[in-house]
């Protein structure tokens, strides 16, 4: 598995999502469209948080985001349950942009290394496999974001 291919695909997927949401008016960022349980703000925080968990933590690395992000954006969370102010939209966009470079800097040349967390939902065994799983996860959410953007107009 070539590093350039995996990191390039990851960057294209993430950049596409950021480009889609960058111009979303502030008043629509936290709207939960009918048929959905989360907002686009949540979607962005979720991508950042889940990437941190499955890429960095499964590989045995320290978390690179604040611990409280999980309370807002982990799987199973939703804005209706928030009991505080979530991380700001602009901060999430900035962190999402920086996260891809951090992943590449951390894992370049290490795609074949085994994961520290052997028992994981993805049944991934290597860094490269978990990166592919993460790209798949982001692609799925990209589709949800597309649908939400159409509904939000």
Automatic annotation (TrEMBL):
It comes from the Bacteria. InterPro entries: DinB-like, DinB/YfiT-like. Residues 12-145 form the DinB-like domain. This is DinB family protein. The lineage of its organism: Bacteria, Bacillati, Bacillota, Bacilli, Bacillales.
